[in-house]
Amino acid sequence: MDKNILDVIRNIEEDRLYALLGYAMIFCVVPLLFRKDSELAVFHGRQGLALFLVEMSGFTLSVIFPVLFRPFLIVFMVVSLWGMIGALRGVQARIPLVHRLAERLVL
Questions:
Q1: What one-character-per-residue DSSP string does 29-73 give?
Q2: Is 76 within 8 Å of 56 (Cβ atoms)?
Q3: Residues 6 or more apart from 61 whose CB is under 8 A from it?
Q4: Are 46 and 18 in contact (CB under 8 A)?
Q5: Which one-letter DSSP state was computed for residue 97?
Q6: What is the b/e burial string over 95-107, where b = at least 16 CB atoms within 10 angstroms of the residue's CB?
Q7: Distance between alpha carbon 81 and the CA centroid of its chain, in Å?
Q8: Which one, out of 17, 69, 92, 94, has a CA that is 20 to 30 A from the CA of 44?
Q9: For the chain, what is the domain count?
Q10: pTM score, whole prediction
Q11: Do residues 50 and 98 lie in contact, with contact meaning Cβ atoms separated by under 8 Å?
């Protein structure tokens, strides 16, 4: 195979891994800092950061009102998994509501 094609394939695989890190709680800033040139990694990094902020708010509220907000923690885990699957597939899967917040984040 041509060396350029192998480099492109390697970059795509690295972009997917960085995009995956976007949903790993505090590591959501890694793709935003180290893969600024990758549209996929930045998309998932922004969306992961927005989800992380929502998760932290939900966690704080679940400490204050455990009965009301603990079920949302399970929802957050499912949504994170959804984003991770999209990142591994190399797809910009827009998570409803979270994506809107991600678009409004000023970085």
A1: HHHHHH-TT-HHHHHHHHHHHHHHHHHHHHHHHHHHSHHHHHHHH
A2: no
A3: 68, 69, 72
A4: no
A5: T
A6: beebbebbeeeee
A7: 9
A8: 69
A9: 1
A10: 0.87
A11: yes
At 19 the three-state DSSP class reads: helix
Distance (Å, whole) CA 41 – CA 26: 15
SS3 assignment, position 21: helix
Residue with tokens 């603990």: 70
* Residue appearing with tokens 């009301």: 68
**If you search the block for the tokens 């990694």, which residue do you land on?**
41
Give me the amino acid identity at 6: L
> What are the tokens at 71?
């079920």
- Can you say whether residue 94 is alpha, beta or left, with left for phi > 0 and alpha for psi between -120 and 50 degrees? beta
pLDDT level of residue 72 (50, 70, 90 thresholds): confident
Condensed to tens digits (0 to 9), the pLDDT of residues 51-70 reads: 999 999 988 988 898 888 88
Query: Contact at 8 Å (CB) between 45 and 28?
Result: yes
Give me 18's structure tokens: 């960085």
Q: Contact at 8 Å (CB) between 58 and 73?
A: yes
